[in-house]
Amino acid sequence: MEQEVLAILKDIREFAKVPAHQLQWLVDHGNITTYSDGEKVFRKGDAIDNLRIVLHGEVGFYMEQAGSLRYVDVIIPGEITGLLPYSRLKNSPAEGIARGEVTIFNLHREHFKEMISSHYELTESLVHCMTDRVRDFTKQQQQNDKMMALGKLSAGLAHELNNPSAAVIRGAHELKKHLANLPERFKGVIRIRTTEEIVDWVNDLVFGKIAAAGQQTFSMSERMDQEDALLDWLEQNNIPDADELIESFADFNVTTADLEDLKKRLRPDDCPAVIHWLNQVMITERLVNEIAEASKRINTLVTSVKSYTHMDQNPEKVRADIHEGIRTTLTMLNHKIKRNNVTLMQKFQQDLPKPMILVSAMNQVWTNLIDNAIDAMEGREGSVLEIRTEKDREFILVYITDNGPGIPAALQDKIFDPFFTTKPIGKGTGLGLEVVRQIIRQHNGEVTVASEPGKTTFRVCFPEVS
Q1: Higher pLDDT, 109 or 379
Q2: Chain centre distance of CA 138
Q3: What confidence tens digit (pLDDT) does each residue in 433-463 have?
Q4: Whether residue 328 sits in one domain with residue 237
Q5: Which pLDDT score is estimated for 411?
Q6: Is the confidence at residue 430, as pLDDT, over 50?
Q7: What is the CATH number of the domain that holds 356?
Q8: What CATH number corresponds to the domain at position 99?
């Protein structure tokens, strides 16, 4: 078995430059453990006291998330894991489960001092292995953080797009149903006998009402009184389907006085046809406006996505309006702002110059800081998010302030550290603020925090030309 283990160690890429006698020392001081399929090799929280090398089989790597185990990775034969020289890892952050029959070589930490002092090449290879492991883990966590952010934005966009898209569908359906009634109504209109002067008067009435729509506001009781008066007039004058007309007439502020003027100018037989024609025009106008407004909202969201990701630009610094980036980010996060009943205050310096920035990267900064601020205020009444910008000499300053519970003083020095997070599992990887700091430093700037109960302010400072 010893020769078999030695042969496997010689084939491991990380040990390619390690002398044979050092690998022999490793074999002589280690031991072998075996696990059957499905058996737990290690549990979350277990003390990590051994360097481990998988000889046969595979070990599934699972992390707890939202109360259940989530598959993260697999440890394959020849892979080095567990404790490494100079590593500060003390406890397992996850669970390892055997996939098939698994054989593992172990070296206890009690032998590390001798290894470090007497076997340089072996130690060096394991330190390089630890460096690669940290880099790979960081890259994977950053990718997870990006995917989590993308998931939040996707959910928000789906929520924001749902209402206008449903309005378009509903409006198109109503318009189609409404237009289906035109042939029958047209018969009555074409039989009308009147003068050009009356036709002009009716046109001025209907399109004047359309042009003035929305300029007057009515209370609920005033609206109901108007609808009751219209219904009474229409029924007294034997206008068919009177209850179907009052809503659109009230929407466009058609009054009983208008209808009386119309009645005086028309033959009694023509009055119902003209009144229904007025209703047709107003309903069509209302539905078209609803569809146009919903389509405009969808277009605004799509434009915001494009602006947020800066899809049509190369990843280089350009002069850009940071207010546009912040507003776009607020559009992307609007669903969270509304869901948490957050009052938004924007205090933007109007003549703020356009700095040289990486637009998409800076949008990540605004997203992380604003999203964190909203999360901090979750469940609190009277939540207020304030965003303020100003110029100080050659520097651009952005302040993002929330009135959440604040960050404890003991944690304020740690919040920018990689993997540090105060959020529960599944809500944060601890890389958001680290990414913010990296991006701002790319712009030769700095991000700082000042926090006390009821007020937390992140201050982003960077030069106009970085």
Answers
A1: 109
A2: 22
A3: 888 888 899 899 999 999 999 999 999 999 9
A4: no
A5: 83
A6: no
A7: 3.30.565.10
A8: 2.60.120.10
Q: Give one word for 66, left, alpha or beta, with left for phi > 0 and alpha for psi -120 to 50.
A: left
Query: Whole-model pTM?
Result: 0.46
Residue 297 lies in a domain: no
- Pull the structure tokens for residue 410: 């003991």
Pair (351, 271) in one structural domain: no
| Residue after which a domain boundary falls, among 292, 319, 347 | 292
Selection from 96, 86, 14, 105 nearest residue 63 by Cα = 96
Number of domains in the chain: 3
Structure tokens at 448: 């700082």
